[in-house]
Design goal:
With 154 residues, the protein is of the alpha/beta class. The chain contains 5 helices and 6 strands. Strands 2-1-3-4-5-6 form a 6-stranded parallel sheet, sandwiched between helices.
Length: 154
């Protein structure tokens, strides 16, 4: 994947969360272009009517069409066969994580409590996404990216 100018779709109904994600992405990929959808239906319309994004970040809990249903549609209609899709949620609901994995998400990010931790998680996700083809997925033990609490390093 060419990292010189990535087009990234952020689907999140919460404006503050979308701005934090865009800021973390731009900290790690300064030349990326971030586009925002406010719900899953808006994200699907964007995908169907624009150049395919290089990476998609889908919030799980959105109105109209949630991120899980959006991911399911992307998978079932083969809309983005080579685009990594990252699920994001404040929750670590095991059922959502399992469904995200089944429908081909590249990884599942549990939104952390601080921007510093969010930035670290985004960097881990980007490093994985940019270094591996979509067909190579994170193993089950690394599929969920979450805040790490290590008192020696925080």
């Amino acid at each position: 994947m060419n990292t010189s100018c990535l087009n990234i779709l952020i689907a999140d109904d919460d404006e503050d969360d979308a701005l934090l994600l865009a800021e973390a992405l731009q900290d790690n990929l300064p030349s990326c272009n971030c586009y925002r959808a406010t719900d899953g239906l808006d994200a699907l319309n964007y995908i169907k009517s624009n150049v395919n994004p290089d990476i998609v970040f889908l919030d799980v809990n959105m109105p109209i069409k949630n991120g899980i249903n959006c991911l399911r549609d992307i998978h079932n209609y083969n809309l983005l066969p080579s685009t990594p899709i990252v699920m994001c949620s404040a929750s670590h609901n095991i059922r959502d994580i399992k469904v995200a994995d089944e429908f081909g998400a590249a990884c599942y990010i549990v939104k952390p409590s601080t921007f510093n931790q969010f930035n670290k998680i985004i960097l881990r996700a980007i490093n994985f996404l940019l270094l591996k083809p979509k067909s190579v997925r994170l193993d089950k033990s690394n599929f969920v990216l979450r805040e790490t609490i290590n008192p020696l390093y925080n």
